[in-house]
Amino acid sequence: MSEHTTLPKSGKPSHESGGSVKSVSVISTGAGEAHREHIYGTRKPALWWIFFGRQWISIPINVYVIEHSDGLVLFDTGQDRAVMTDPDYWPAGLTGFILRRLFRFHIGLDETLTRQLEIAGYSVTDVRKAVFSHLHCDHTGGIREILHADLVVSSEAWDHMLGPHPERHAIFRRDIDLPDAKWQRISFQPTDDLSLAPFTHAFDLMGDGSMVLLPTPGHLPGSLSMLVRRDGAPPLLLVGDLCYGSKLLERCQFPGTGDKKELRASFAKVLALKERMPDLVILPAHDPEAAGALREATPADVSADPDN
Fold first, then answer.
1. Confidence (pLDDT) at 19
2. N or C: which end of the chain has fewer CB within 10 A?
3. Dihedral of alpha carbons 46, 51, 52, 55, sign
4. Do the bridges between strand 236-240 and strand 281-284 make them parallel or antiparallel, or are there none, so unpaired?
5. Is residue 79 within 8 Å of residue 29, measured between CB atoms?
6. Apex 119 CA angle, 32 and 223, nearest 5
7. Mean predicted confidence (pLDDT) in 93-108
8. What is the number of other CB atoms lying within 10 angstroms of the CB of residue 214?
9. pLDDT at 302
């Protein structure tokens, strides 16, 4: 089941501040290993480095947890531990053969979404909404644990999933389009919030300007980022897999996968936004330095514990 939702004509925040955001933290549903070429980019053909690349880099599988006055919001939901236990998790044939060589997972018994939320002091039932930067399996793995929540995705990402052979892109409809899931497919609408420039389209998630979704395609069609505005603390931009490290984005170093033309345009918009917001902290999904960056960007009197 899915629902199509649009933004009111004005995307301006209804409040001057992000006072409705009480805390932001990061949890991790394990770790993975990716090819160096995947993270840092390369001119080599993808199949070459997937099969013959020898240098692997460990990266976390982060989930961002935003405590809002109206309830708990997640940005992505991590990787399902079934990848470690289910021999039929990957598709059969050539697709599964390639995907097994693209990424290695290391997920412990306590590294499920439910358990990580408990360790952080929450219950999985506290989750009101989950926003998906895109629909790769390492971002959608917790869906079955939060079927009570509203699941938010861009219309473009949803349509891409419905296209031919999404499993070739590590998008598994069997784990996403579940009968009891409450999907909301959002469309970005024109915004007159000048603080978001150069972004001209946005979606105000909570209706108060504290969490604004922005289109940042390139990694996959319909990929999005989320701007989090907080009182007394720098704003945050959660960018999913637009890049694998904020420093890589700052020097315009594109990853080894994705649409380079769209990545270039999205990189430029994010960097222009940061120019307008010099204290903006960019937090990719798999950046090993993200937890530390969030800690540094959170004053002592703002409740957030990125180590949990």
1. 76
2. N
3. positive
4. parallel
5. yes
6. 45
7. 95
8. 23
9. 52
Among 56, 102, 58, 61, which residue's Cα sits nearest to residue 79?
61
Quote the distance between the C-alpha of residue 229 and its chain's center: 17
Residue pointed to by tokens 């089941």: 1
User: Distance between CA 188 and CA 196 in Å, rounded?
Assistant: 13
d(CA 290, CA 231): 20
Start-to-end Cα distance in the chain: 33
Count the residues in the chain. Answer: 308
Q: For residue 257, how far is the Cα from the chain centroid?
A: 16
Q: Is 279 within 8 Å of 239 (Cβ atoms)?
A: no
- CA nearest neighbour of 13 among 163, 276, 203: 203
Q: Tell me the pLDDT of the chain averaged across its residues.
A: 92
Provide φ and ψ at 29, rounded to 5°: -95, 60
Q: Can you give the residue ranges of every domain in the chain?
A: 21-296
What tens digit of pLDDT does each residue of 115-144 get?
A: 999 999 999 999 999 999 999 999 999 999
pLDDT value at residue 11: 37
DSSP string, 141-194: TTGGGGTTSEEEEEHHHHHHHHSS-GGGGT--GGGTS-TT-EEEEEE-EE---G
Residue 297 DSSP one-character state: T
Domain range 21-296, CATH architecture: 4-Layer Sandwich (3.60)
Backbone angles phi, psi at 159, to 5 degrees: -65, -35
- Structure tokens of 206? 């909570």
- What CA–CA distance (Å, rounded) separates 95 from 274? 38
Give dist(CA 137, CA 142) in Å, integer: 9
At 201, the amino acid letter reads H
> What is the DSSP code (8-state) at residue 92?
S
227-236 pLDDT, tens digit per residue, is 999 999 999 9
- pLDDT (0 to 100) of residue 4: 44
Query: Token pair of 135, please?
Result: 């629909």
Q: What are residue 228's DSSP bridge partners?
A: 211, 236
In this prediction, residue 18 carries a pLDDT of 55
pTM: 0.92
Tell me the HSE value of 151 on the side-chain side, using a 13 A CA sphere: 26
